[in-house]
């Protein structure tokens, strides 16, 4: 027994996180690898069958995991951001969602040959395009800001809304299945209204309570996140105790209420829930896929295949076409959004749980819901995951594939650095909160962003202009450190840099904590004042072939090395990476043909302005 448990944990945890790392390292859709891993463990090798091993607790565990996922989705649903996203996002959710529900139901009934009850459940499940699938794809493909916003917000909104819709449909079918057909409508409608009101009330009340206690310093910081996570799982369990399915609604509303009440401490919760979300998604998807029996896969008949193709090539495109009539979306954007709609973990979990309940209630064709949904998930993950980037390129909806650089702080010298990168053809954006500071860059045609990167709005604005590396170059060393610390989890701690805060402040024990700042740009002596002084003396940034290979931990040439008249700032390898020079480099960068160094050097002759 213990051996079997150890093998199961190794397969699920080790395999799931390993698949996530492989997907990140080679820019592959993680959900595809997780799905394939589950198929190998379960139907393929018969190594793992979670429902048989866990028994009657498997379904509650899956439901609890789904509750956490929809709670996470609710935390990302800020209504201010929804309104700011524009008309297109509203059309893709408010208008397209019911259209897709109806068309999906018709496709399931007339093409897939499912009975009406199972068809309605199938139609409700497939409206979900979860952020756990869409957002990783968007991170790997630099789409233009507007179309990326459409897909991102559609996924965030449809994730909890779709789960609620599937829950309501299931509740309606379960209630109707226990009554004589066509009777007790007056009882069914109040029942659904009661479920909705209870889910909303149980979600909003604890969020208001958390806000009340937080503002009065009645929750210690060490207990804030455990209390919130416990409340999320508790409202799910309480609502499900009274009515099956209402718990998902309550967990979603709880997350939405926390996001819109702006409870303090949510930034820490978001970081933790993102990490937990990766773990839960990895384990849950592997387990659900491994739990598929060969008999279920054997039910993938021609009608199921035809239904899947109908959803892909008819239901989604027609739904998007109808919902975007007379909108400002271009035909390229409508075509792209009409094709890209990968389904993910919520659809899989709801199908696995709801399909069984519907079958237990005696509905015909209920056993076809899960294979139908999994067929759609597998097809969309593979086709959409691997076609997103080529299709976006063909429709000219992508930004450059070259690594992008964000420079925070628009001074004279940082504007010159951004200009050199822009003329090299490297994607760059200059960020500042003051419009006047950005004026020179705007006149030069350099992409700019007026935003405060310590705000949620600023981070979302930067996400719409994908950047891979960041240099914080304001005169305020503490602000630079705050920006780097805030964005390090998104960029990677080895990809955020700041001008040196001063040699003394870089002491690993007495100086600024490494977790509270970025990597130092160049040498410790290269502070903002040095760059500003050199620029005033006529030094300028230029692009040139590499002069010499750098030594470990130092730039290729510096004020204390090379010819003494050149500061090597970074090395560009087109289409591959940007290596920003830092005294904290762990290993040297070996120059290759085609590499370009961006250096700061004095005017000719160098004797006019040497380093002081």
From TrEMBL:
Protein keywords: Antiport, Cell membrane, Ion transport, Membrane, Transmembrane, Transmembrane helix, Transport
UniProt GO cellular component terms: plasma membrane
GO molecular function, one term: antiporter activity
Membrane topology classification: Multi-pass membrane protein
Pfam family, one: Na_H_Exchanger
Annotated transmembrane regions: 6-24, 31-51, 57-77, 89-111, 117-138, 150-176, 188-210, 222-243, 249-269, 276-294, 300-323, 335-356, 368-386
InterPro entries in alphabetical order: Cation/H_exchanger_TM, Na+/solute_symporter_sf, NAD(P)-bd_dom_sf
Chief localisation class: membrane
Entry superkingdom: Bacteria
A GO BP entry: proton transmembrane transport
Domain Cation/H+ exchanger transmembrane as annotated: residue spans: 22-393
Annotated compartments: Cell membrane
Family annotation (PANTHER family): NA(+)/H(+) ANTIPORTER 1, NA(+)_H(+) ANTIPORTER 2-RELATED
Designated name of the protein: Sodium:proton antiporter
Origin species: Gluconacetobacter sacchari
């Amino acid at each position: 027994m213990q051996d079997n448990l150890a093998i199961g944990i190794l397969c699920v945890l080790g395999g799931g996180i390993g698949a996530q790392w492989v997907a990140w390292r080679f820019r592959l859709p993680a959900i595809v690898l997780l799905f394939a891993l589950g198929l190998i463990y379960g139907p393929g090798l018969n190594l793992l069958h979670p429902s048989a091993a866990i028994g009657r607790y498997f379904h509650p565990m899956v439901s609890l995991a789904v509750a956490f996922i929809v709670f996470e989705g609710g935390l990302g649903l800020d209504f201010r951001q929804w309104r700011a996203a524009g008309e297109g996002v509203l059309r893709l959710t408010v208008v397209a969602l019911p259209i897709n529900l109806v068309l999906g139901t018709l496709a399931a009934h007339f093409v897939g040959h499912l009975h009406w009850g199972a068809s309605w459940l199938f139609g409700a499940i497939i409206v979900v395009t979860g952020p756990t699938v869409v957002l990783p794809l968007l991170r790997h493909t630099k789409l233009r800001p507007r179309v990326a916003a459409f897909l991102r917000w559609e996924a965030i909104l449809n994730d909890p809304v779709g789960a609620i819709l599937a829950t309501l449909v299931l509740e309606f079918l379960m209630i109707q299945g226990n009554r004589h057909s066509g009777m007790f409508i007056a009882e069914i409608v109040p029942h659904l209204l009661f479920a909705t009101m209870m889910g909303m009330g149980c979600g909003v009340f604890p969020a208001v309570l958390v806000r009340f206690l937080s503002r009065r310093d009645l929750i210690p910081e060490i207990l804030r996140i455990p209390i919130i996570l416990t409340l999320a799982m508790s409202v799910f369990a309480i609502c499900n105790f009274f009515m099956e399915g209402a718990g998902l609604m309550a967990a979603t509303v709880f997350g939405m209420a926390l996001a819109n009440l702006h409870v303090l401490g949510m930034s820490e919760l978001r970081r933790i829930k993102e990490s937990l979300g990766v773990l839960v998604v990895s384990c849950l998807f592997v387990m659900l896929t491994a739990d598929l029996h060969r008999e279920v896969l054997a039910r993938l008949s021609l009608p199921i295949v035809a239904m899947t193709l109908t959803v892909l090539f008819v239901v989604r495109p027609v739904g998007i076409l109808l919902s975007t009539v007379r909108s400002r979306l271009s035909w390229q954007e409508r075509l792209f959004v009409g094709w890209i709609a990968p389904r993910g973990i919520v659809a899989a979990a709801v199908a696995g749980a709801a399909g069984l309940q519907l079958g237990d209630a005696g509905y015909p064709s209920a056993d076809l819901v899960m294979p139908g949904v999994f067929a759609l998930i597998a097809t969309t993950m593979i086709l959409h995951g691997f076609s997103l980037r080529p299709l976006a390129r063909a429709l000219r909806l992508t930004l450059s594939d070259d690594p992008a650089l964000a420079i925070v702080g628009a001074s004279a010298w940082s504007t010159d650095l951004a200009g050199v990168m822009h003329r090299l053809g490297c994607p760059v954006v200059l960020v500042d909160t003051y419009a006047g500071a950005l004026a020179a860059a705007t006149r030069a045609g350099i992409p700019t962003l007026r935003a405060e990167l310590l705000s949620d709005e600023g981070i979302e604005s930067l996400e719409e202009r994908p950047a891979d590396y960041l240099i914080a170059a304001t005169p305020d060393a503490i602000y630079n450190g705050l920006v780097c610390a805030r964005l390090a989890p998104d960029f990677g701690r080895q990809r955020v840099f700041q001008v040196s805060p001063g040699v003394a402040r870089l002491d690993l024990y007495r100086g600024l904590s490494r977790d509270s700042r970025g990597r130092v740009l160049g040498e410790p002596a290269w502070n903002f004042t040095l760059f500003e002084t050199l620029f005033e003396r006529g030094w300028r940034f230029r692009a040139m072939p590499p002069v010499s290979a750098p030594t470990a931990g130092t730039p290729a040439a510096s004020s204390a090395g090379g010819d003494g008249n050149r500061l090597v700032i970074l090395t560009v390898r087109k289409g591959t990476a940007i290596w920003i020079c830092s005294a904290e480099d762990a290993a040297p960068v070996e120059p290759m043909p085609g590499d370009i160094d961006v250096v700061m050097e004095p005017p000719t002759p160098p004797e006019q302005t040497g380093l002081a």
